[in-house]
């Protein structure tokens, strides 16, 4: 056992012994002297130490076997059973030591008359304290789990953000390097075109700088940029390359990752040869929620291994933003890439709530139900013993406390059935069935 926990239980036992000793000394002791106070304190210590450590070890054992978070229902049921059993046994042992061994009462009257009532009353008090400690333990475990989950999610978010920034930062030097290569080739081939290319490149690079800090841009912005970039490519390749834009107007307000079209167009040029006799035809069009870039396949031999920045960069950036996939299709005649067009500008896209999100919402609702039930149970355990005490102290001949105890008890039982009953399992089964059906579509 943890030494810190044992020290904490010792402190709890001492404080309970002190306050209960003062209570019994003040209310039930006629002769107010130090000797009687010491006896009250020692008797209180007997009860508090036995009950506190008895409950502590039984709860520690259950906590090792069954988690409050992963096995909530089983942990609660076993906790209630063990609490009742452990407290009944421990109270009877303490009462026997107190009333029979120390006070020399007749053992035959231990379970009857006044001693029987004292047994019942102390058992209820012990159960009340134990119920409060159980509720406290559950809430502590849940808070600990919630804090752990929040920390994990923050770390995941920071990692994803750092990865995304790293991917975006690849684009600036990558684009500039390739553009300078094209410019270098044009300077030798056609100085006038090189001058026009430089002017166009400055406009395009301005767009690159403007979009570098964005996670998503509209399809309309990306198409306009792609058209400008295609004009730049036409400057170099003239009639060796043709571009055909067929984008549905309804798709222009959707979102894609920045510079995705530029990278894919660059891939088409990089991996295919283009001549006047065998021109490269590139089509940009929309279909079923995807933006497609397709070219006729005229694959050139790779002199050196490709760095693979373009396509892999797009795939990785989409994987950080959405569960929708980037599709790559290749045949003997064409090469096609399909990138999803997103309908909401958020950090994590999804067409419907994820199963994890729905599970979290159900878990949060479950916690509220459990908190309500435990609040009801603790109130019952606090108020009913108080009413019993008032009843027996003021009018013991008429036991009126039975009626609120029964009425409230029935309500508490119905509350327990609602929280842990058969209907709960049926509801969770139906939710699981619906989720499985949606995933299979």
Automatic annotation (TrEMBL):
Signal sequence annotation: none
Domain of life: Bacteria
Record's keyword annotation contains Kinase: yes
Membrane-spanning ranges: 12-28, 34-56, 76-98, 118-138, 373-394, 400-423
Protein name from the UniProt record: Histidine kinase
Source organism (scientific name): Kaistella chaponensis
GO cellular component entries: membrane
InterPro entries for the chain: 2TM_dom, Bact_2-comp_sensor_kinase, Sig_transdc_His_kin_internal
Molecular function as annotated in GO: phosphorelay sensor kinase activity
Positions of the 2TM domain: 361-435
Boundaries of every Signal transduction histidine kinase internal region domain copy: 162-240
Keywords in alphabetical order: Kinase, Membrane, Transferase, Transmembrane, Transmembrane helix
